[in-house]
Specification:
Elements (H helix, E strand, L loop, with lengths): L5 E4 L1 H8 L6 H16 L5 E5 H7 L4 H11 L4 E2 L3 H14 L6 H12 L4 E3 L9 H14 L5 E3 L1 H5 L14
Helix pairs in contact: 1-4, 5-6
């Protein structure tokens, strides 16, 4: 039997979980799918956050921040290491992300440095984006690093239990 897969929980997931129901139909659907993943599939993974996630979700309105923090209480937080810092700078430079998206490079760096199997996000502009993922795989392959599978909750919710083993060419 394979080991339980590891998953890096990016801050957009926590934000969707803690937010008041949206009037925007797409956001509301994402919120619902995220809640379903949290309730039905989260236990199928060893879930981690990071110092970057904690920093992001504790910013802003204190009541909203408290709701967000309540979701990650008890989830291990990965430490910011020199390796994560170096990777984040390299990804920011090589992936072509806008400077305002530096934290997205940091999330990628955590997931890669800690060899996560999955990175779970709703950030489809800079993380769960085919072009970014392709560039990331090329960069990581050149450095002999593994690339996590970058997905939305919807993608993991649809898989049958026990079907989370990933076989990747870069591993």
């Amino acid at each position: 039997m394979a080991a339980t897969p590891t998953l890096y929980l990016e801050s957009s997931i926590v934000s969707y979980l803690a937010a008041h129901p949206s009037r925007d139909l797409i956001v509301a659907a994402h919120q619902q799918v995220t809640k379903e993943w949290w309730d039905q599939a989260r236990e199928r993974f060893v879930v981690y956050t990071s110092e970057a996630v904690v920093d992001e979700i504790t910013a802003g309105d204190p009541d909203a921040a408290a709701r967000r923090v309540s979701f990650i209480t008890g989830i291990p937080s990965l430490a910011l290491t020199n390796e994560v810092k170096v990777l984040a700078r390299a990804y920011q430079e090589k992936l072509g992300l806008p400077s305002k998206a530096f934290l997205d490079s940091v999330h990628l760096a955590y997931a890669v440095a800690y060899q996560m199997d999955y990175l779970l996000t709703w950030n489809c502009a800079h993380l769960a984006n085919g072009i970014v993922i392709s560039r990331l795989q090329i960069i990581n392959r050149a450095e002999g690093r593994n690339t996590p599978v970058i997905v939305t909750p919807e993608e993991l919710l649809e898989l049958p239990e026990g079907d989370y083993d990933v076989e990747r060419s870069d591993r």
